[in-house]
Amino acid sequence: MSTTDITIGEDFWQGDDEAVLTTWYFDDRDSVAEGDTVAEIMLEKTQMEIEAPASGKLHIITTADQPIKKGTVIGKIGD
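and the corresponding structure tokens:
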């Protein structure tokens, strides 16, 4: 089974080390297409949308309203 990690790109962090995953726009195991907005995070006072890096089934790892750090895998997309 091939999977693609959903992480927050380095360009989003703007010097911050931690963010909050505020919303998932899809449910666990929903099908998503590459480029779909799947989640939203809050950095300091800026909300950012996270797009699906691939198409497939979404597997949520980090639940909404949880803090995340750089490099955290918040979900996976796979079969």
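(Above: one complete record from the training split.) The longest strand covers residues 18-24.
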